[in-house]
Amino acid sequence: MDNDTIGVLFFSGCALVFFGIPGFVGYRAAKERGRNRIIWTILSAFFPPVPIIILYMIRPAKVVPGKSIRCPYCQEIAFTKVGCCEVCGKELVLPKAHPLVSEEAKPITQN
Ligand SMILES: [Zn+2]
Q1: How far is the CA of 105 from the centre of ligand 1 (A)?
Q2: How far is the CA of 20 from the centre of ligand 1 (A)?
Q3: Residue 14: its H or E element
Q4: What is the pLDDT of residue 1?
Q5: What residues pair up with 93 in beta bridges, in sequence order?
């Protein structure tokens, strides 16, 4: 390997880390929120950290099985890892779900 080859490899490696890490973070955030993964990955890779911050601020687009459920009280989408609705603050009974099975959350009290 001559110096040019090493230089190209080094530059490629740096570019991969530089764009790859924010791109991957954006991809994960978009996936959890039911957003378009390709668009958000590209935006996150080239304009970090703005798209990632936006993704964390906006509400999820749809329920992602194993990641989020629709709150039975306010109908907003809440992340299952939080344990309560981020919008109305009510505690959520999470479906003892298989990650591949989509289930709606049930209200705690039934009248
Ligand atoms: Zn709610």
Answers
A1: 10
A2: 35
A3: helix 3-32
A4: 76
A5: 106
